Amino acid sequence: MVLLGNDEFLIELSKLFQKARASGSISMTMKRYDGRTKPVSRDGTPAIKDPQYKCLVRAQSGSKKISTVIEQRDVEKFTMAYSNLLKTSVNGLKRLKKPKKKAIAAN
Known about the structure:
Helices cover 30% and strands 23% of the residues.
């Protein structure tokens, strides 16, 4: 998995959307991230009172995996850019066929 900066992640994500438009799908996950890469053993010391959590965002399409870490101060900027990317990228979705409603005959 490749850890990218926020701007690079959005650029690569738009490329993934273009590739997935022809065939395939994209899986996205978001989770809270505290910056640690391996667990800390419990030695009796208290945890940090006010940790600065981050957000880990991952995207996968086929065998290509990308990820980024978003700081608290950058969440609003990233969400705006991400929502704009989604608005431009999901316009190729197929419409679902709605089942026809059966008319109820009046007696």
